[in-house]
Every structure is written in C-alpha cells, then in structure tokens.
Amino acid sequence: MDYNNLITDEDDVIFIEDDVISIEDDEYQPKDDAENAWKVLVVDDDKSVHDITKRVLDGFVLDGKSLRIYNAYNADETKKILNEHPDIALILLDVVMEEYDTGLQLVKYVRDELKNKMVRIILRTGQPGYSPEKEVVINYHINDYKLKTDLTSEKMIVSVVTALRSYKDLVSLDLDRMGLRKIIQSTPNLYKNKSFRYFINGILEQLTSILHLDMDAIYCRSSGLALSVNQNRFIIEAATGDYKEYINKDINEVLADNILELCKAAITLKKTIFTEDGFASYFNSSWGTENVIYIKSNTILKEWDIDLINIACSNISIAFDNMYLSMEMDVSHKEIIYTIGEIAEFRSNETGFHIKRVAEYAYLLALEIGISEPEAECLKIASTMHDVGKLGIPDAILNKPAKLTPEEFEIIKSHSSIGYEMLKRSNVKLMKDAAIIAYQHHEKYNGKGYPQGLKGEDIDLYARIVCIVDVIDALLSKRVYKNSWSVEEVIKYLQDEKGEHFDPVLVEIALKNFDKMLKIQSEFKDE
Predict the structure, then answer these.
(1) 317 and 279 in one domain?
(2) Residue 144 and residue 164: Cα distance in Å, rounded?
(3) Is residue 390 flagged as an active site residue?
(4) Is the pLDDT of residue 327 over 70?
(5) Structural domain of residue 313, as residue ranges?
(6) Are residues 359 and 318 both part of a single domain?
(7) Which of 214-223, 308-317, 353-362, 493-502: highest mean pLDDT?
(8) Number of domains making up the chain
(9) How confident is the model at residue 399 (pLDDT cuts 50, 70, 90)?
C-alpha cells in the first residue's frame, strides 16, 4: 500500500479495548531492509496499543520506503533504542507510563540531552487530564498531540505521513547545510588535490540533498591535461555512498553496465542525460578537461529538478575553471622557481639534476623527522634555490678546474649572502624560506661554517636539512674538480661529521634512509 496518495475506507476508532488483534513478534519486520525504511519507535506500556499500531501501519509505503517499527514499553527501553538508532524518524509516544509524565520527560531527554531536533514526536494519550493539550504543546518540543480515543486509522496514517515528510525535509535541509559547509571550507585551498575532492564531495552531497535523491553519486573527469594516451580515460575523483570505494579508478573498470552506458552517452553527446534511475551530467572546462557527474535517483525527476540540475552544473563548470586556473598558476610558480635554480647550477657546469635530487632528498628527510606534508613540499621547492647566489659569482672562479686560492674561495663563499639578498625582499613564505636556506646552508653544526658562524639549532632546520643532502649529493656526484665518492666513503664521512658538520639527528635519519636516497639518485642520473 503506497500512502503518497492516501486512499482508505476505514474510519473506525482503533484504540478500543475489545477485539484486539494480537501480534506476537515484538519487532515488525518489513520486506525492505532497515537501510531503506522509515524507522518508527512506538512507546507505550499497553501491548494492545503496539499491536493495533502494527496492524494499521502494515504494508505502509511512502516514497518507496516501508516502515521498520521498534517497540518500547518504558523509559529505559526507549532511551536504549534511541541511542542505538539515532536516525529514528518518528516517535509515537504515550504520556502516562511508569509516571504520570514519563512521556513528557522522554521528550526533554530527546531534545535536550540527545540534542535530536530531527525526530518527529507525536504524543498519544488516553488520559488528557494529566497533560492538557495547550500546556503540553507550548512547553514541550513535540510535533503533534493526539487523544487515543480520537485517533482513527485514517487520521493515524495521515499523521504518520505528515510527520515522515517533515522529517525528510529536515534531513534534506541538514544535508544541504553540511554540503554547503564542505564547499565553503574547501574554498581557501581549492588548488590542492585533497581539497579539490572535498569540494566535489560537497557538491555531490548538496545536489543529492536538494533533489531528495540517493546519496550514491560519482564525479569523474578525463585526463585532458595529461599525455594523449590517457585522454580517453575517465577517472573517478570523488564519490559518495556506495561509490566511495571506486575513487581513483577508471569508470570502465568499476561501473555497472547501465551506469557506464549512461556516462559514456553523456560524454559522446556532450550533454546531460536523464533516466528513471538517475542522470549523468557532462561539462567541459576552458582548460580542456571533460567532466561527468552521475547521481542515482529513486524517483522520477520533475521538470523543475532537471532545470535545477542544469543550472547547478553550469555553475559547477565555472567553479572548476577557477580551480584549474589556480592549479595552473601554482604549477607555473613552482616551475619558475625550479628554473631559476637550474640556471644557477648550469652556470657552474653542473647538471640541473643536482637541484632535483637535493629537493627530493630534502623532502624525504623532512617527512622522516615529522614535518607535515605541506611544509615538506614547501621545503622541496625552496631548496631548489639554495645556490641561486652563484649567479653573482664570476665564471672564471665558479668553473675553475684547479684548486681555488684563498681569495677566490672567499668570493665563492659570498654566494650565500648574494642569494639571501636576492630573495629576502619577498613577502611570500616560500621565498622567505628559500632566502634562509640560501643564507645558512653552508653553516656547520659545530659553528665553524659560513657566513655567520651559527651553531647547533641556531641554524634554521630547513638549512640544516639542505646542508646535509647538498653535501651527500655533491660527494656522490662527479664534478669538474673531483671524481665521485663511493657509497662507503660517503657513509663514513657522515659518521665522522656527525655533530661536527651536520646535525647528529639528521645524520641518523639520512643513514637510516640511505637506500631510498640512492634510489632517488638512480632515478635522476646526471647526463
């Protein structure tokens, strides 16, 4: 029986003492599973009330969902069920049970202690003298008040339908609020991949909430900015509900045939396609990426829903364009910094892979000592400019194959101060970090380095990290003035200089991860 359009011929008073229909099972088990059913809690100390309620609501279906009825006969049982099932949609609550106001105290428990504002509460009483309607409605957060003697089967069903629809609307509004909060929270960091997925999940949840659809949804995009061999692949980048496990997978590998066909049709026709089971919306960005959102629906979409979806997807496309622009600017920024570092290295006749290896070594050690991933990434980029000051050193000295004179060595040493002067004026954190690294990466832990003669932890941590990885790569590499050292020689040097040239903690971490560093070296070999 579907009560979306209520039709009933029964209009008898159902709460009577005679001819009670007895149902032995304490918990009514509907055909639908609990996840796809409205949860209703019946609270009354009279078993006949439970039995008749089950009889009247037998076969109840609203919006494609049946009922799952839970039964409680006192306050303790009620509290236990409410704690175990916070998603109960409706409570049919008796007033007089152990005490004359047990039901009213339970209302306070639900609203004040459990902080549950969603569940709809219908008070049913056979003794109105204990709880006058006007007083109860004013003083207690209930949603309806019924006398058992006035509650016919039709009126009861109407009350249940009204309460459940109200509950559904409240849940939808709450989901909409949570989805909007996710979008707002992701806005400051849209260029980050992690934040991008958070942003998309917010959009999916908001769409499913506004349209009262299922929570099963996916977002995927093509590798439009990748190599041509990947341009025909669509990867799921965000998902909700049952599709969460499919994130980072190709749609061809995981989606059911009917959903896959719908998504592919949207891609081929380059438009939104609607079916009885859901819709797939296609849109591309000005940066060349193709995007698809699929959302499952348990109801037939109305014309207004379709218009809303089209408007929403249009706005989403604009948001993606802005996000891709931010990502592109971030990549360009990093490439410019890396290129500046390469120029400095090329002037000294050393391959640009030196700064690439130093950056990867620094990132590895930073993570190993507990620096956060964003900070480690910042260090990785900033480290590429550790020798930018070499741009101010004459070629004849910088690339001299023979041993430097004391005067020439003093000029070489000045590259630390030159690099610092070049970078210190920036207000960007990454550039400030790069300035300190350029200035201090030749300081020694024992205080015998240059240019300031700093000692121990007075030397910036980033500079201490770059100091050790710069030396390790220099020793492992062939230069115009020397051959490369063996792995054994480098390890012995690190052990000998522990607490002298290098931070002893960083030496231990470097030795512990030396195999990983050698792997990085092999991946970025000098040409």
Answers:
(1) yes
(2) 12
(3) yes
(4) no
(5) 190-326
(6) no
(7) 493-502
(8) 3
(9) confident
CATH number at residue 317: 3.30.450.40
Distance CA 183, CA 107 (A): 35
- At residue 482, the pLDDT reads 72
> Could you report the per-residue pLDDT of 432-489, keeping only the tens digit for each?
999 999 999 999 999 999 999 999 999 999 999 999 999 999 999 887 667 889 999 9
With a cut of 50, say whether residue 193 has pLDDT above it.
Answer: no
Interior CA angle at 151 toward 48 and 167, to 5°? Answer: 95
In DSSP terms, 282 is beta-bridged to 292
Residue finishing a domain among 273, 295, 326: 326
34/151 Cα distance (integer angstroms): 27
335 found inside a domain: no
> b vs e for 261-288, b when ≥16 Cβ sit within 10 Å of the residue's Cβ?
ebbbebbeeeebbbeeebbbbbbbbeee
437 within domain boundaries: yes
Strand order in the sheet with 144-147: 61-62, 65-72, 37-43, 90-94, 120-125, 144-147
Those residues with Cβ within 8 angstroms of residue 450's Cβ, 6 or more apart along the chain or in another chain: 413, 416, 442, 443
Please indicate, yes or no, if residue 97 is contained in any of the structural domains.
yes
Averaged over 275-289, what is the pLDDT?
76
CATH of the domain at 118: 3.40.50.2300
Note whether 407 and 444 are same-domain residues.
yes
Mean pLDDT of all residues in the chain?
79
User: In this structure, is residue 23 part of a structural domain?
Assistant: no
Domain identity same for 198 and 161:
no
Question: 273-275 and 278-284: which strand pairing?
Answer: antiparallel
d(CA 377, CA 393): 29
Contacts 24+ apart (CB under 8 A), 261-266: 262/294, 263/220, 263/234, 263/292, 263/294, 266/292
Least confident of 88-92, 181-185, 478-482: 181-185
- Whether the per-residue pLDDT at 194 is higher than 80: the answer is no
Given a cut of 60, whether residue 4 has pLDDT beyond it is no
Rounded Cα gap, residues 40 and 42, in angstroms: 7
More confident residue, 490 or 341: 490
Torsional class of 307: left (φ above 0), alpha (ψ -120 to 50), beta (otherwise)? alpha
Q: Report helix, strand and coil shares of the chain as percent, to nearest 5.
A: 55, 15, 30
From 148, 182, 390, 444, active-site residue: 390
Q: pLDDT tens across 43-68, in order? A: 999 999 999 999 999 999 998 899 99
| Distance between CA atoms of residues 24 and 50, nearest Å | 10
Estimate the crossing angle of helix 429-440 against helix 415-423, to 10 degrees. Answer: 170
Return the residue matching tokens 């201490």: 464
Tokens of 145: 């008040």
299 shares its domain with 386: no
